[in-house]
Amino acid sequence: MLNAIHHVALICTDYDRSRRFYVELLGLDLIREVYREERQSWKADLRIGSAQLELFSFPAPVMRPSHPEATGLRHLAFAVANLDPVIMRLEAAGVAVEPVRIDPYTNQRFTFFSDPDGLPLELYEAP
User: Fold this and answer.
1) HSE value, Cβ hemisphere, 13 Å, CA-based, for 21
2) How far apart are CA 42 and CA 58, in angstroms?
3) CATH code where residue 96 lies
4) What is the per-residue DSSP string for the chain?
5) How many CB atoms lie within 10 A of CB 55?
6) pLDDT band at 28 (very low <50, low <70, confident <90, very high)
7) Any signal peptide, and if so, which residues (predicted)?
8) What is the reported pTM?
9) Which of 33, 58, 72, 119 sits 20 to 30 Å CA-CA off 15?
């Protein structure tokens, strides 16, 4: 029935800041970008592997609770071949990264950080 995840959609508070974060810092490829006048909303389609991340802006989005953890999307995880260079790049850009942990079931390394709006993101080392 289901084949794969096609896209994940995010709403941000500052479109330019979030676009720079996901495209320039994290290195996602910009597929297309449109301004939807009727909604006063930017939308960018970003490629990550075979999936997409849709980045939306709206005039006054409501913040969702994240800490303590709330029902709904817990975090968005990105696979990387090696955590260390990605962590160094994030920290050099002023992004706080949690200490690396080891998944007790897979023995793989992972860590968490947040996007500009506080969305919890994970880096999962999958060589």
Assistant:
1) 21
2) 7
3) 3.10.180.10
4) ------EEEEEES-HHHHHIIIIIIS-PEEEEEEEEGGGTEEEEEEEETTEEEEEEE-SSPPPPP-SS--SS---EEEEES-HHHHHHHHHHTT--BPPPEE-TTT--EEEEEE-TT--EEEEEE--
5) 25
6) very high
7) none
8) 0.90
9) 72
Whether residue 2 is predicted with pLDDT greater than 90 in this model: the reply is: no
User: Which structural domain, as residue segments, surrounds residue 90?
Assistant: 73-127
Q: Scanning the structure block, which residue is given the tokens 């970003």?
A: 46
46 and 89 inside one domain: no
How is residue 1 written in tokens?
Answer: 């029935």
